[in-house]
Automatic annotation (TrEMBL):
Annotated keywords: Membrane, Transmembrane, Transmembrane helix
InterPro entries the record matches: UCP026631, YdbS-like_PH
PANTHER family: UPF0699 TRANSMEMBRANE PROTEIN YDBS, UPF0699 TRANSMEMBRANE PROTEIN YDBT
Domain YdbS-like PH residue range list: 58-133, 394-453
Protein name: YdbS-like PH domain-containing protein
Signal peptide per UniProt: none
Coiled coil: none
Keyword Transmembrane helix: yes
Residue stretches spanning the membrane: 12-32, 38-56, 159-181, 201-227, 340-359, 365-386
Amino acid sequence: MSEWRRLDRRTLGVSALVTAGIAVSAGTPIAIGTRSLWLVPAAVLFVGAGVLADFVRWRATRFRCTPERLELEFRFVAHTRKSLPRERIRTVDLTANPLHRAFGVAVLTIGTGQQDEIALAPLARADAEALRTELLHRVPAAERADGALASLDKRWIRYAPVSFVAPALGLSAFGALFKVADWFGAGGGLLQWLLGLFGDVPLVASVLLLLVLAIVLGVAGAVGLFAEMWWHYRLDREPGGTLRVRRGLLTTRSITIEERRLRGVELVEPLGARLAGAARVDAIATGMKREDGKTEAKTLLPAAPRAVAVDVAARVAGEAVADVELVPHPPAARGRRLRWALLTAATPVVVLLVLGVLLTDVLLVLGGALAVVALPVAVVLAFDAYRGLGHGTRGRYLVVRAGAVRRGTAVLARDGVIGWTVKQSVFQRRRGLATFTATTAAGAGAYSILDADAVEGLEFASAAVPGILAPFASVPAEASRT
């Protein structure tokens, strides 16, 4: 397909409905308040201008796919052309919101994993699928066709409420409600009305009930968000050496990762999911943008039973590595975690107590209550973080595990490690510890073995990736930096 082609003309219908929706939603309250009909022609002009602008974009835009490049051209007042070499294309993703689905079109986003990106918005769904296949399937289809690796089990939705998203959504809902009320000068009245819902219940109990209500709303929101993001989920290994994740209820998404760019997987266990026996699987791959902070673009499996996550990780990596027996870290690493956890928990307590002495006894009560809750929790998390530390190897993979609130087990291909950074603080040096960081061009870019024994860690790093530390083999283990 090397001839120039246009985007799908149905984009004009999508544009008309979007601008009409904006006009109605924004204009209706104004029309009711002003009792004026002049907004009707204004809305018509607004919709017409939006459709005209999209017509110009559609008419002036064309693209083509040659054996060497994908090119996008815009010719109107200005002439611009964007081109991506096909060998540099790393991701080809399809997205279709409910309006796109109603019109039978989709947005195709092609990227190199860096800043270069071309979005074809929109194409007919069949054309978008065909172009995606052409751009990524670079080997004969008969060489590999492994089929489905995982699909959604509706029972996984029970893990949505145990994520940190649930309380965040609930508190955000209350925050947004009070913000809107404050715009109309009714913030205080809203609070009094909410507290009045519980009758003559004491103030402290009313606040606790409001927090419970916020959590209930957050749980409902988290369940809805999970359904929207992961309904119809399916992970496939496709002919041509690609992994494809398809998901979405209202807005459908299709994310494709080349296996030759895959450098491993990460088994991620946030605290709530871990307590519920769940984990998710993320891809460690080159050419995936890291600056946007989004996790769902690299997620191969949402929160699911840990046994399922371990199985999917093994099938993607080609080896059962997620549960390999790891080297434990010295007891001195436990002491460091205890000290840091207690310092973190004690700092706000001390601040409240000092302010309580200077200002009001209420802060003394709050400081004492916080100490009773925060200090034991800090100790428990510190011991849990220590138990989670470990590193090891299995086959062609390096395995690194760390974390308590967010425990991650990174399974990283050893041939994907391009360097080691060895660091020792003054306190680590005194206890014979060091942190060894494997540097890679994939995933987060660096995966650290925290507070390992300095001598054992240096020997492990040298053996795990032979040759990289050879020039430094004679450096003493207590050196501050290698």
